[in-house]
UniProtKB/TrEMBL annotation:
GO MF assignments: ferric-chelate reductase activity
Taxonomic path: Eukaryota, Fungi, Dikarya, Ascomycota, Pezizomycotina
Keyword Transmembrane on entry: yes
Compartment(s) where it occurs, according to its Swiss-Prot or TrEMBL record: Membrane
Domain FAD-binding: 328-383
InterPro entries: FAD-bd_8 (IPR013112), Fe3_Rdtase_TM_dom (IPR013130), Ferric/Cupric_Reductase (IPR051410), FNR_nucleotide-bd (IPR039261)
Descriptive protein name: Ferric reductase Fre2p
Keywords from the named record: Ion transport, Membrane, Transmembrane, Transmembrane helix, Transport
Length: 565
């Protein structure tokens, strides 16, 4: 078929005119190079005319549009719909991926919709997709189960990927230009479509994992949800790439022309190795995609756009991280040991607004000179309430279990702070009549910022006997909370706490939990069960830091704390 194409004047004129009009911003030398290698679909078969000669033979702009099924015996126009056919499917996918969080966030502000949503939350939003497992990892190292709301969103996106990857294929009624059989032709179309979709999902994959994700600021979805979506979009991206390879391999083999790690246990065992490999393989994939396109269709003006997009998202994410670290500079931190498991870091001179739902990252370059990028997440709160005699603003944390306040420094280390970054959504919880704050162990550091954010709060905190020094250190802040339950050495009965709030007559109850995975999952289950059995409306926020992969499984370190004075 290629020798026939090489001498078909109508085909060559049509192709030359299409390149001239669709690729006007590409130099003539690049178009000539493309023409020499790709015009016939076979690099070993040269065309009769050069690109310039074929274009010179187009004496007048074509008037007739090419129609599938017609014999091409005229110089034809290529319809926009045909030219952008595969691109449409990719644009639909990436548009829905971005628009879905925005749509459901806006929907929550429609009065009658928001009331209906309040009723279905205990049934379709809050429950775990697999009962009892969300923050806690699944058995046999299978990762973490999404919530029901996250699962429905993921299922919708998977179904959409299947549909858009499988519909609207049709064979030509005549022999395929590259001599495919009917079955091989269909395989080739599937391969090209899935390859294009895989490229389109790359920017979405990087966007959802970014701390500078613009969707965090314009929607009411938390960072943890976007990280769940990031993992599933990445899996779909890889799956499309696998289908792309298999189908095109099978198609070209029929011609005889084919030249014959986000694993949970690994993340938890060696997070730093995982992180470096994760970045390395991501860069490897992007660079590989670039060369894949370059050697196939250099400077096509279509496929490179997706690579430019993913590079732009990644570049700006890293740039803003560096700028935020530079903004605060290198500061000295005083380290005080509160117990065998808890240390406190006091960092002065960092001034941010004290708003719940935000977190920051702290770097310790002097502790790990060969790994200056290593950082740890910290909650943000105002600690003027911890000791009224102090007015300077400070940040503090714990490594493993982290806490902050002010005592005589014993060790001084250098550190840098990056932030603040949005993690949890606060507006829905703060609109409630009553806010119940549930903390487990060091999880109190993620809860303290909420105690002054609402006029009607109740704190329930359980901690181990060995954590009493932490309780003593926080006494100034806890004394300001009128309604509180502090349990040392005993677990909280979360269901009883929720039922007590319902019996008290509160109609809208906000629940914020921060603590070990077991406490977070049991609180989610309790909110679901009590919400189904009562008329009260619940707003649940889980501040678990489960997305922080450096936290070890089974450790009481689900949140780090950063305080202000």
């Amino acid at each position: 078929m290629a020798p026939c194409i090489a001498q078909n004047g109508d085909f060559l004129r049509t192709l030359a005119y299409c390149l001239n009009t669709r690729c006007a911003d590409i130099s003539a030398s690049k178009l000539e190079a493309y023409w020499a290698q790709q015009a016939t679909g076979d690099k070993t078969v040269s065309v009769e005319w050069t690109y310039g000669a074929a274009l010179a033979n187009v004496t007048a702009p074509p008037k007739r549009t090419d129609t599938t099924g017609d014999m091409l015996n005229y110089t034809a126009l290529i319809a926009d719909a045909d030219y952008q056919y595969h691109l449409v499917f990719s644009i639909v996918l990436i548009s829905i991926g971005v628009a879905t969080p925005v749509f459901f966030s806006v929907l929550g502000y429609v009065p009658f919709i928001s009331r209906a949503t309040d009723k279905i939350k205990p049934y379709l939003i809050y429950p775990s997709f697999l009962r009892g497992y969300n923050i806690r990892p699944l058995p046999y190292l299978l990762g973490n189960a999404p919530t029901m709301g996250q699962g429905l969103c993921i299922a919708m996106f998977i179904i959409l990927n299947i549909i858009l990857g499988a519909v609207s294929y049709k064979n030509f009624p005549y022999s395929h230009p590259w001599a495919f059989t009917k079955s091989a032709e269909l395989l080739a179309y599937v391969g090209y479509r899935t390859g294009h979709i895989s490229f389109a999902l790359l920017p979405l994959t990087v966007l959802f994992s970014s701390c500078i994700n613009i969707l965090l600021w314009i929607t009411d979805w938390p960072f943890s949800t976007f990280l769940v979506l990031h993992r599933w979009v990445a899996r779909l991206c890889a799956l499309h790439a696998v289908v792309h390879c298999i189908t095109l391999f099978a198609a070209y083999v029929s011609l005889g022309t084919y030249y014959t790690d986000s694993i949970l246990w690994f993340r938890r065992t060696s997070y730093e190795v995982f992180l470096i490999l994760h970045i390395f393989f991501a860069a490897f994939v992007i660079i590989g995609c670039w060369y894949h396109v370059y050697f196939w269709k250099p400077f096509s003006g279509v496929y490179e756009l997706w690579i430019y997009m993913v590079c732009a998202v990644w570049f700006f994410d890293r740039l803003f991280r560096v700028l935020r670290v530079a903004q605060n500079g290198v500061r000295q931190a005083n380290v005080i040991e509160l117990s065998d498991e808890i240390v406190r870091l006091d960092i002065s001179g960092v001034r941010w607004l004290s708003t719940p739902g935000y977190h920051a990252y702290i770097y310790f370059p002097t502790l790990q000179p060969l790994r200056p990028w290593q950082n740890h997440p910290f909650s943000i709160t105002n600690t003027a309430l911890l000791h009224k005699a102090f007015t300077s603003e400070q940040a503090s944390s714990h490594s493993g279990d982290v806490e902050m306040s002010q005592k005589i420094p014993q060790v001084v280390i250098s550190q840098s702070v990056a932030g603040p970054y949005r993690g949890n959504i606060t507006c829905d919880v703060l609109k409630c009549d009553r806010v119940l704050l549930i903390a487990g162990g060091i999880g109190i550091t993620g809860i303290l910022s909420w105690t002054r954010a609402h006029v009607n709060v109740k704190l329930a905190w359980s901690l181990k006997e060995s954590s009493r020094p932490l309780l003593k250190d926080l006494e100034p802040a806890l004394s300001e909370i009128a309604d509180k339950v502090i349990s040392v050495g005993e677990r909280l009965d979360v269901t009883a706490l929720l039922e007590h709030e319902v019996e008290a007559g509160w109609k809208a109850i906000g629940v914020v939990v921060c603590g070990p995975p077991g406490l977070c999952d049991s609180t989610r289950s309790a909110v679901v069960s009590v919400g189904k059995a009562s008329e009260a409306v619940f707003e649940l926020e889980v501040d678990a830091f489960s997305w922080n992969l450096s936290l070890g499984q089974g450790r009481d370190s689900s949140s780090a704390g950063k305080y202000w004075r």
